[in-house]
Amino acid sequence: MALRLGGALKELRIHLCQTSKQSEGVREFIKNNYVNIKKENPNFPILIRECSGIQPRVWARYERGAEKSTPLTNLSANDVQSAIKQLVK
């Protein structure tokens, strides 16, 4: 997966549960894509936050502290990728 991060986007945070069914697609996305994304964007902060029982969500922080978030509940790994791409635009 090629994903260029930067520009107005300053930080990406992914919140997920380590065990819940709702976070399964997020866990799969991280397992399959995180290393490649970090290789392409070595200095960009991508934060993975695990908490038991939490609903999965991705947060994007932009210039001047503006933030947007998108729920990732019950999404497949491909749908998680699409949700992140929408926030990167």
TrEMBL record:
Q: What is this protein called?
A: NADH dehydrogenase [ubiquinone] 1 alpha subcomplex subunit 2
Gene behind this protein: 693085
Q: Which Pfam families match?
A: L51_S25_CI-B8
Under the heading SMART domains, the entry gives: L51_S25_CI-B8
Q: Where does it reside?
A: Mitochondrion inner membrane
| Alphabetized UniProt keyword annotations | Disulfide bond, Electron transport, Membrane, Mitochondrion, Mitochondrion inner membrane, Respiratory chain, Transport, Ubiquinone
Do the record's keywords include Membrane? yes
Functionally, this protein is described as follows: Accessory subunit of the mitochondrial membrane respiratory chain NADH dehydrogenase (Complex I), that is believed not to be involved in catalysis. Complex I functions in the transfer of electrons from NADH to the respiratory chain. The immediate electron acceptor for the enzyme is believed to be ubiquinone.
Please give the positions of the paired cysteines in each disulfide bond: C17-C51
Give the family this protein belongs to, as stated in its UniProt record. Answer: Belongs to the complex I NDUFA2 subunit family.
- List the GO cellular component terms: mitochondrial inner membrane
Q: Which species? A: Bombyx mori
Q: What is its main location?
A: mitochondrion
Q: How does it sit in the membrane?
A: Peripheral membrane protein
Domain of life per record: Eukaryota
Matching SUPFAM superfamilies: Thioredoxin-like (SSF52833)
